[in-house]
Design brief:
alpha/beta, 2 helices, 38% strand, globular, D-aminoacyl-tRNA deacylase, EC 3.1.1.96
Length: 149
């Protein structure tokens, strides 16, 4: 699994011009699921995400987690994160999991993330044509791949 974490002031996802989900301060996560991903990848990424210290403390040092600041999380599925651009100019998605594999893993990730955060995690709709808007705070953007532990 691969995630892009963005520290945000606010973020939203819209589908067909209607806001599906929106958060204020917290994290916007783009999640790519690979064909070889398992429950172990989910557990590791969930723990890493909720404990990642990327929010400022009183001294302006990134020393607080999303849990520490009572922040929110918005998760959007994005199979294109699994793209390989090694050959040619058209990305290959052979490492991305098919929907029958990725949907259950995406749902399990969101459920476990919500449990670890202690409140609901908002999402887009898997496979939908979504428009994502956000105000990146910092900017702070982190990429984490569960295969690079």
């Amino acid at each position: 699994m691969r995630i892009v974490i963005q520290r945000v002031k606010r973020a939203s996802v819209s589908i067909e011009g209607r806001i599906e989900s929106a958060i204020q301060q917290g994290m916007m996560l783009l999640l790519g699921v690979g064909y070889a991903d398992t429950q172990e990848d989910i557990a590791w990424l969930v723990k890493k995400t909720v404990n990642l210290r990327i929010f400022d403390d009183n001294e302006g040092v990134m020393n607080l987690s999303v849990k520490d600041i009572d922040g929110s999380i918005l998760v959007v599925s994005q199979f294109t994160l699994m793209a390989s651009c090694k050959k040619g100019n058209r990305p290959s998605y052979i490492h991305a999991a098919s929907p029958d594999v990725s949907v259950p893993l995406y749902e399990a990730f969101c459920k476990q993330l919500s449990e670890a955060l202690g409140k609901p995690v908002l999402t887009g709709i898997f496979g939908a044509d979504m428009q994502v808007e956000l105000v990146n705070d910092g900017p702070v953007t982190i990429v984490i791949d569960s295969k690079d532990k």
